[in-house]
Write a structure and sequence with these properties.
The protein is α+β, with helices and mostly antiparallel strands. It has six helices and five strands, in the order ββαααβββααα. A five-stranded mixed beta sheet has the order 1-4-5-3-2. α5 crosses α6 (154-170).
Length: 174
Amino acid sequence: EVGVHLQGGEGLEGEVSIKGSRRSAKNRKAVSQILVEDFNSTQAEADVAGVVFDARSEIWAAQTNRTKKDYYDRVEFGRGETNVEGARGALEIAKDGQRVIWALQRPDFSTVVHEFGHLFVTDLREAARHNHLASKDFARLEKWVGVKDGKWSQDHHEKAAKGFERYLRDGVAP
């Protein structure tokens, strides 16, 4: 799925424009450093998020018969500006499959966790095409967020991302 998922923001009518600089992270430590610098996370928060990101890379690699390096290569982090008022963060998915997690207006730790939620939904959708267990997990997720006939709305994406935030905060799967 190509597009942009925003955290916060109002007036999502029309084209979403994001401009800024992007950089890649080749390992968990580099992810943590970016989260401290661009997402205003504490070192402890960034370290936890780095572990979560690294674990997701391992799961995705196993589900898609690819490598952790492939996962790290396909996700970049950006610091930028947008035309959407109040948007704190975004996940951009390009036509070539590249993903960019954007820090926008006043990002914080919850911003990156929320965008990880969007990222992990797209990862699970992709893995579901290659892996029977991932397919079952994705079907459960679609049922939980209320998706009908495979058609995801912005509300479905937001419910999934917020569910991921709650999962990390409370330790209880939706």
